[in-house]
Write a structure and sequence with these properties.
The complex is a heterodimer of chains A (259) and B (268). Chain A has two domains: 179 residues, Rossmann fold, CATH 3.40.50.300; 68 residues, no CATH class. Chain A has eight helices and eleven strands. Chain A starts with a strand and ends in an 11-residue tail after the last strand. Chain A is 31% helix and 29% strand. Chain A is of the alpha/beta class and 259 residues long. Chain B is an all-alpha fold and 268 residues long. Chain B has a single domain, classed as ABC transporter involved in vitamin B12 uptake, BtuC, CATH 1.10.3470. In chain B, helix 2 packs parallel to helix 8, helix 3 runs parallel beside helix 5 and helix 4 runs antiparallel to helix 10. The chains are: A alpha/beta (259), B mainly alpha (268). Chains A and B meet through helix 2 of A and helix 8, helix 9 and helix 12 of B.
Chain lengths: 259, 268
């Protein structure tokens, strides 16, 4: 998919201590599309998202279309938090929506917006559920609701289905497709799940500190490119209703990217 | 019971000080529990060793030097966490070791200081005068204003710092402000309950509140309630049983925590 570039990475490098996390990254994210960032652990995928958010100090430039930073929604990797904390999904969203402290009550407008955001992702019934008791898929839907509550133009998702069961993954992916159709959303997706990438991304950036290859998904996701990126033989085969699964000749970790 | 001791001026002042300090401790205790800052709080309270010793040696009001050391240690730990790759508990451990060792060295070198350190080791609400009550009222006001401004933002930050920043939270500013205010509140708790139990004044009511509450707003109010009930019950009990006020208040809050843990286990 080609169109107007919403985000352009121009020679972006990130250094942390003595180690180079990203090196001379040149890539584009196209407006209205779904761009997947793939690569092995420590490739700098998360750092690339953090750089868009302005959270990773970098050299080079990250430019936005029209010179204006779009409204950005962010769904982080599965969070590590106090699972016994008395915070409901509604509290969590309202805390981000209203400035008025929650201990002095929830504003009607914040409650309405939070309810709408939860309904939009099919999580209205979770409003009163404590965050710590949500399943992986439910948790990610609440995080998506939070990201959408800011009416983003650009949505960044970091390993959104890691730790989510197959049913939850399917619901989440269908939801993303629906939202993209409904809203004028541009998605950037970091994922280890190549089946998800194949099914949902139209543009792929292969990253291992620097961009190894990028382009339309069918052109980029070749066994040769994947072998070069991951250092092992990998390919994709299609089965069932057209969804793709990956095959590999030796073990490969599904661990989330620490970079 | 209140009729028996209420006539004593010092007990009245202690009661007023207790009901002013209790909600301030609870308000900041919520953050201590949410951000797992109990060890941080301990390091700040133990800096009273060095703070009091330096004040007594230099002829400065030791309450001022205790507060100064508390703030200094709090800021040093937050900075170390930001600028060094050492784990937070390591940074806290080093800071705590430094201030405790300095305090012990100074106190040992000047044997005369030992008796003056008693107040900071065990605290004493009964010595609260008008000046302390005035300061406690200011501290309560500042804690409530801070909680009003920061509560929602710190809640999001406790889930994920990057997410908070992506949502526009200036988490660094809030972290420093929270640490500094926490340091001041801990110093007050040192005066009330002593440096050994200061952290308990913050952590235990908030831990009970966490168990009783079902919502984020409820967490705050249950913590305040647990802290107030402990103080209001602990003060007359300490007078009746002739036990230290700080320790008695903490014992009541620990009992409340026990009840809250049973409630959370069976009914929540």
């Amino acid at each position: 998919m080609k169109g107007e570039a919403l985000v352009i990475f121009d020679s972006v490098s990130v250094t942390r201590g003595d180690s180079r996390i990203l090196e001379n990254v040149n890539a584009s994210v196209f407006r209205g599309g779904t761009t997947a960032v793939i690569g092995p652990n420590g490739a700098g995928k998360t750092t690339l998202l953090l750089a868009i958010l302005g959270l990773a100090r970098h050299t080079g430039a990250i430019r936005f279309a029209g010179g204006r930073r779009p409204r950005i929604g962010y769904v982080p990797q599965r969070l590590v938090f106090d699972r016994g904390a008395p915070v409901t999904a509604m509290d969590f969203l309202a805390a981000a929506i209203q400035r008025w402290p929650l201990w002095l009550g929830m504003r009607r407008e914040a409650r309405r917006r939070a309810s709408e955001a939860l309904e939009r992702v099919g999580a209205g019934h979770l409003a009163r559920s404590p965050m710590g008791r949500l399943s992986g898929g439910e948790h990610q839907r609440v995080m998506l609701a939070l990201a959408l509550s800011g009416r983003p133009e650009l949505l960044l998702l970091d390993e959104p289905v890691a730790g989510v069961d197959i049913a939850g993954e399917q619901i989440f992916c269908d939801l993303l497709d629906e939202l993209k159709k409904e809203c004028d959303l541009t998605l950037v997706l970091v994922s280890h799940d190549l089946s998800m990438v194949t099914s949902h991304a139209d543009h792929v950036i292969c990253l291992n500190k620097t961009v190894r290859c990028q382009g339309p998904a069918p052109e980029v996701l070749t066994p040769e490119n994947l072998a070069s990126l991951y250092g092992i033989h990998m390919g994709l085969y299609r089965h069932g209703g057209g969804s793709a699964r990956r095959e590999e000749s030796e073990g490969h970790s599904h661990d989330r990217d620490a970079g | 019971m209140p009729g028996e001791w209420g006539g004593f001026g010092f007990l009245k002042r202690a009661a007023v000080a207790a009901v002013l300090i209790a909600p301030a401790c609870a308000a900041m205790g919520v953050n201590v529990v949410s951000f797992r800052l109990a060890f941080f709080s301990d390091a700040v309270s133990h800096s009273a060793f060095a703070g009091a010793a330096v004040g007594l040696l230099a002829g400065i009001d030791p309450r001022l030097t205790v507060a100064a050391f508390g703030i200094l240690v709090g800021a040093a730990i937050v900075s170390a966490r930001r600028w060094s790759d050492a784990p937070t508990d390591t940074a806290v451990g080093v800071a705590m070791a430094g201030v405790v060792a300095l305090g012990i060295a100074l106190i040992s070198a000047r044997g005369g200081l030992r008796s003056s350190m008693h107040l900071f080791l065990y605290g004493d609400l009964l010595t609260a005068g008008d000046f302390e009550i005035g300061l406690a009222a200011i501290l309560l006001a500042v804690s409530l204003v801070f909680s009003a401004l920061a509560y929602n933002r710190l809640l999001i930050t406790s889930f994920d710092r990057n997410l908070a920043v992506a949502l526009g939270v200036r988490e660094r500013a809030y972290e420093y402000a929270c640490a500094l205010l926490l340091a001041v509140v801990v110093c007050f708790a040192v005066m009330a309950a002593g440096l050994l139990l200061a952290t308990a004044m913050l952590v235990v009511p908030a831990a009970a509140g966490r168990n009783f509450a079902r919502t984020a707003g409820g967490f705050f109010w249950w913590s305040v309630a647990a802290s107030m009930v402990s103080s209001v019950a602990g003060l007359p009990a300490s007078a009746a049983w002739n036990t230290p006020t700080g320790a008695t208040i903490v014992l009541f809050s620990v009992a409340l925590f026990g009840a809250s843990a049973i409630y959370a286990r069976l009914l929540k």
